[in-house]
Amino acid sequence: MKKAISLLLSLCFLCVSVPVAFGADDLQVDASWSILVSEAPTSYETFASEKLGSCLKDVFGTQPPTVTQAAGHYIALGAAADADVSGVAVNGYRIRAANGNIHIAGTGTRGLQAGVYRFLEEFCGRKVYTSAITVLPVAKSIAVPADTDLIYEPYFEYTDTDWRSPRDVEYSMANGLTGGTYRSIPAQMGGSVNYVGGFCHTIGGLCETAKYAETHPEYLALHDGVRTTEQPCLTNPDVLDICIENVLALLSEKHDPTAPLQIVSVTQNDNYGCCQCETCTAFERAHGGVNSATTLNFVNQVADAVKAAGYDNVAVDTFAYLCWQAAPQNIVPRENVIVRLCPIFSCYAHPFNNEECNGQFMKDLADWSKICKRIYIWDYATNYSHTCTVFPNFGVIQKNMQILYEHNVKGVYVEGNYYMDACDAEFGELRAYMISKCLQDPYCDLDSEIDGFLEAYYGPGWKYMRKIVDSFIKYAGTFDGHACIYYGSWACMRPMPAAGIIDACWALAKKAAANETQLANIERSELSWRWYKASAYKGEFSVLNPLRFNNKEQLYKDLLASGIRTFCEFSSEDLTQIDPDVIRYDIPDRWHVGSENDEKTQKAIRFGKISEWLPVFGIVEYFWQMIAS
Ligand SMILES: [Zn+2]
Ligand SMILES: [Zn+2]
For residue 480, how far is its CA from the centre of ligand 2 (angstroms)? Predict the structure, then answer.
């Protein structure tokens, strides 16, 4: 049977041929079928029927009618379906074949819609790989096994990631993203899990530390002997009152009683300035000697006030982060408190359950899971110091998600390259898709998902792209051992003996590209490999290549020409103003405006100039850089 990847609205269009086998007992769904809904459909059922109808039109060429009385074969939705979902968890669904027809029903606000998206994916082969690439094979009919009875229950009540495509509602619906910070899913599509007010680092604002700095310095954290606006003092009763007043004011303005869950973030400011006053210290000493004790006690009281005010669908969240990461003793979070644990110090060359590098995080996760029924994770998936280099975490994304699920985690946000519009030089869309699919189902066939993505995004040479990704997995952290989110290129992935083979893969993938878009996607991802090589003296940047200085200048020009405006998080420097000697003689990991004044860069420039004049000196330059990095 001929399959095609259809162009939907402004989306890409490709054609492939894949044989599809029909079993003797399969139901053959075609344009003669109808979509059955009840006579008074809910907004969820109306959306689900319209979505199913329009997608089946793209498959069959003719849209099956939506009816309220069965005539012939049908796909029944919601109340019209013969699919008992009374035992299915909230926002889950059931897809069932019975009596020659198909029945899809769901629970909660988004179960039915998710069931329709799953039907389209499972039986029609519809894949939403990016906000611009949807794959949907055309066919005269599709096969659904007669014994189909597929039940799905969400692994997490809250799922979110940023990047680029995950901000798109259709992408989020197809790939199971439910958080409301980076997308707003309309009510008929199931709505989002929204943070009311700020998403993170909100405690300074809620406690108004800046406002009271002069009049009530005792409201501020006492840190290293001085009162600081970095954090509030969380055992001061007035601070608690101020915070509660502000949280309740926020809710009176933005509370949605129809939402299944809304979250108010009462999260530490982004620094280590925790209060060391006598009261805070005494409280922490009595609760395991950890900073999280005062924070949890404070947030528990805010959560009590929220509950007492009648906000039953609201949870209050706080961070287990930096110096607050370890769980306290003799105090437990209220049921309406979420603890967001942040593995910011973790290694991503190895999974979370690697004792050597991630033992502390796993201990903290285990400790929190003993006392907290609602752990969320703020995970990381980008190199924030050198965003253009290869961040070799591809091999741990799925395993880590499984570990989190198996430790009773209820929600996950994966912070990625959220500034991708200013720095898209890597594998952003691939990572976003891998993360989304693992949030939707940590036990999915990720290998198959990766292959499908690579083919749709990079084109006919996708197997070469797969070999490249597999090499990054193989060599992740092999020398230094680990890869953290602020490491340099050399520390993340070395040594890389197969650089020549990987170079050949890039060339072959580019040669096979079927159009300019696929070629551009390959070249953009290749920038990260070139950055890595230039920082690790590999390939055309080897000390044995006298042209390596020119190659670095070309890399820099290509990075800027591709629209990159920053090389790292939190930088507003003008990349066009980087000193030409820094570009030519130092490694990309140290390319910054003003870095010509740094001691290491000055030495790199001196060494580079000598190497240019006396190539054999390149060996000295190489070993010095290896040590200096
Ligand atoms: Zn204090
Ligand atoms: Zn490690």
Answer: 9
Please tell me the distance between residue 275's alpha carbon and the centre of ligand 1 in angstroms: 5
Nearest to 427, CA basis, from 449, 456, 394: 394
Distance (angstroms) between ligand 1 centre and the Cα of 619 equals 55
In terms of Cβ atoms closer than 10 Å to its own Cβ (0-12, 13-18, 19+), residue 285 is exposed
Q: Give the number of whichever ligand sits closest to the CA of residue 227.
A: 1
State how far the alpha carbon of 300 is from the alpha carbons of 197, 294, 310, 315, in Å: 19, 10, 16, 10
Q: How far is the CA of 387 from the centre of ligand 2 (A)?
A: 19
Nearest to 423 by CA among 382, 457, 472: 382
298 CA → ligand 1 middle, Å: 11
Domain boundaries, the chain: 2-152, 196-316
Q: Which ligand is nearest to the CA of 237?
A: 1
Compute how many other C-beta atoms are within 10 angstroms of the C-beta atom of residue 601: 22
Q: Cα(288)–Cα(327) distance, rounded to whole angstroms? A: 8
Residue type, 143: A
Q: Over the stretch 188-206, which tens digit does the pLDDT of each residue have?
A: 999 999 999 999 999 999 9
> Would you tell me how many other CB atoms lie within 10 Å of the CB of residue 181?
20
φ/ψ of residue 65, rounded to 5? -75, 155
How far is the centre of ligand 2, averaged over its atoms, from the C-alpha of 483 (Å)?
6
C-beta of residue 518 within 8 angstroms of C-beta of residue 548: no
Point out the ligand nearest to the CA of residue 207.
Answer: 1
Q: Would you say 363 and 357 are in contact if contact means Cβ atoms under 8 Å apart? A: no
Q: What is the DSSP string of 395-446?
A: TTHHHHHHHHHHTTEEEEEEE--TTTTT---S-HHHHHHHHHHHHH-TTS-H
Residue among 474, 524, 525 nearest 499 (CA) = 474
Query: Is the whole-model pTM more than 0.70?
Result: yes
Q: How many CB atoms lie within 10 A of CB 1?
A: 15
Q: What is the structure's pLDDT at 406?
A: 96
Q: What is the distance in A from the centroid of ligand 1 to the CA of 378?
A: 26
pLDDT in tens, 588-624: 999 999 999 999 999 999 999 999 999 999 999 999 9
User: Is the CB of residue 513 less than 8 Å from the CB of residue 458?
Assistant: yes
Q: What's the gap in Å between 348 CA and the centre of ligand 2?
A: 6
CATH classification for the domain delimited by 2-152, as one of 3.30.9.10, 3.10.50.40, 3.30.379.10, 3.60.15.10: 3.30.379.10
- CA-derived radius of gyration, the chain: 27
Asked if pLDDT for residue 1 goes beyond 50, the answer is: no
- Report CA-CA distances (Å) from 86 to 82, 83, 92, 147, 554: 12, 9, 10, 20, 62
Say how many Å lie between the CA of residue 586 and the centre of ligand 2: 27
Cα 350 to ligand 2 centroid, rounded to whole Å: 5
Is residue 206 within 8 A of residue 195, CB to CB? The reply is no
Measure 237 CA to ligand 1 centroid, in angstroms: 10
Number of helices followed by number of strands (H, E) in the chain: 19, 21
